[in-house]
Specification:
CATH architecture of the largest domain: 3-Layer(aba) Sandwich
Strand order of the largest sheet: 2-3-1-4-5
Oligomer: single chain
CATH superfamily of the largest domain: P-loop containing nucleotide triphosphate hydrolases
Radius of gyration: 23 Å
Largest sheet: 5 strands, parallel
Number of helices: 10
Distance between the termini: 57 Å
Number of domains: 2
């Protein structure tokens, strides 16, 4: 039997993760009091006769002061020979604050109404769990379907966990540099398809634009050097425990050159088992929207 403890900061997706595990035929229990975890684990291990193969247990700060005793409970489980895995859901503070504002929910530790202070208190209380976690998934940049894909890799396909999620992001400088960027590259030095009448309405998703941009020797050399640098940096970021790396590539409007080079980098990084990979084109449609207005 596989026994998974799902935890993490409020707003990072614990409830969603539990629902996904339930869809994966896990028997799920959320917010069980800490004092009952040992007893529940003992019972769960005897449930195989009833057809239960895997169990997931949600634990978080809603347990109140009893959460302080969870570390002792985990030590006791290990001493008794029970095997368990910890999945920790995390996200950046600014993303969590935005999610709380959008849903208009109160943070469980923000009795004074200050969500940022509640998040800080929660991180302090959960630090011991994050330290012990087998899997840490940063959901800051993940769509629900992308989270499900990562969960399936871990808990269904039983593939080796990719602790680092790399996001390759194209953008337009005239709309601002993405605030969550770790690495930013400017490709405005490349030939601009905007000034070619037949290419202007197209984007870097189209073969004609891609061929035009990548026909430049400068673009080819830039792509090679960018690939070399990123592949050099990745293992160092991983050794430092980084979970989320955002590589932003920008041109003027975020429609032609940046999209082309972002796709080029994405394809050059594909196929490695050491990290997860996603691509996003933030501003690819904005020029069209502005023209309609």
């Amino acid at each position: 039997m596989r026994f998974v403890i799902v935890t993490g900061v409020s707003g990072a997706g614990k409830t969603t993760a539990l629902k996904m595990l339930e869809d994966m035929n896990y028997f799920c229990v959320d917010n069980l009091p800490v004092l009952l975890i040992e007893k529940f684990t003992s019972i769960a291990m005897d449930m195989t006769a009833e057809g239960v193969r895997n169990v997931a247990l949600g634990v978080d700060v809603r347990n109140g002061q009893s959460l302080d005793g969870l570390e002792h409970v985990l030590d006791s489980l290990e001493a008794a020979g029970y095997e368990y895995e910890i999945l920790f859901l995390d996200a950046r503070d600014d993303v969590l604050i935005k999610r709380y504002k959008e849903t208009r929910r109160n943070h469980p530790l923000a009795s004074d109404g200050r969500v940022d202070l509640g998040i800080r208190r929660e991180r302090e209380r959960l630090e011991f769990l994050k330290t012990r976690a087998d899997y840490i998934i940063d959901t800051s940049q993940l769509l629900t379907k992308e989270l499900r894909k990562e969960m399936e890799k871990i808990f269904v396909e039983d593939l080796e966990f990719k602790s680092l999620m790399i996001s390759v992001l194209s953008f337009g400088f005239k709309y601002g540099i993405p605030s969550d960027s770790d690495l930013v590259f400017d490709v405005r030095f490349l030939p601009n398809p905007y000034y070619i009448d037949e290419l202007r309405p197209l984007s870097g998703e189209d073969a004609l634009v891609r061929d035009y941009v990548m026909s430049s020797e400068a673009a080819q050399e830039f792509a090679r050097k960018l690939e070399d640098m990123v592949k050099f940096l990745i293992p160092h970021y991983m050794s430092e425990g980084k979970n989320n790396l955002v590589i932003s590539i920008g041109c003027t409007g975020g429609k032609h050159r940046s999209v082309t080079l972002a796709k080029e980098l994405y394809h050059r990084l594909e196929g490695c088992a050491d990290y997860g990979l996603r691509i996003e084109h933030r501003d690819i449609e904005k020029d069209a929207i502005r023209k309609k207005l």
